[in-house]
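Hi there,

I know you've been waiting on this one. I reran it after we fixed the sequence typo, so this is the corrected version. Both the input and the resulting structure follow.
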Amino acid sequence: MIAPVCRRTRAWRAMLLVVAGLVVAACSKEPSGEIEQASSRPLEVVLYSSADGDVARLVAARFEARTGVHVRLVGDTEATKTTGLVQRLIAEKDRPRADVWWSSEQMGTMRLAEADVLESWESMEFGAWTGGVEEAQWSHLRDDERRWYAFAARARVLAYNSQKIEASALAGGLGGLADGRFTIGLARPHFGTTGTHLAALYAHGGEKEFRRLLLALKERGARLYDGNASVVRAVATGEVAAGLTDTDDVWSGQRNNWPVEPVFARAGAGEPGRMGELGTVMIPNTVGIVRSGPNRADARLLAEFLLSEEVERLLAESDSHNIPTRPVLRSEFQKWAPPAGAEVWPRLTPRDLERPLAIFDEVFSN
């Protein structure tokens, strides 16, 4: 149950005081004149985000109502791809304009961490619900150096046209589709979540089996699209029988009354000559604080808010139906989640994408 607005507002104002105190203490060597000048400025925080625009605006508005801090949101209207925002943050590294980075996936965030764009910080919200950030059970939800934290995931699924095929026809998973009579679609993997999915398959099956899978998909007439939403549209129109995509795009198609349903992959051994099923690859949102950003106290407050139970609930209730990381919320929103035991949280880095993408280019360019 969501707490009354007044109670949550008081709680976030209290956290604002705590976080502001931490930041002021960390900056106590600054001349007092600079501190006084900063305190007279309007409260504002600059958020760069690749999350869905409607959801990002909803979260920003909720944060403003809780804290009185204005959020200046820079999103897809100003840079059309996550990659564009990542490159922009790297270009601004010496004179940062952003305070907080919120991504709908993890690879771009990892690139920013590797480029030293993000600072380390111990999240009070993350520590509160995990029982301490040292818990190995939750290590897949944060960077080892605490430069980013994860929350509110999507799942990678096989979307299929429920008017043309039965779910049982997909029981063999991706490997079964490669050997079967169906044509599948997938997004070009150089940007977005498909690259992460392919890298996870590569790590799972090894280069030989990964190459064999791609060759089989190509021989079956696999079609490439500009994004996951286009894959779902192709499934709905019958252009392909099934497609690799994210859950939020399937839910979006269903809101349009398209005949699309998801299949969550279950881990299992493969038949001779075919890669075993990896399971359902999870793609979390991630948040980081930009190093030396212009509004440090407000940046920390916003980052903590993004990791709060309130925001995980908000995203689970939104049209994207993100899957909460908190066990306390999982049972409530299990309808949108993979079956028990099916989830896979790959521990990958941007470098882990290089070889799988090279093999993909080799196979699909010939």
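Quick highlight: The mean pLDDT is 86.

Best,
R. S.
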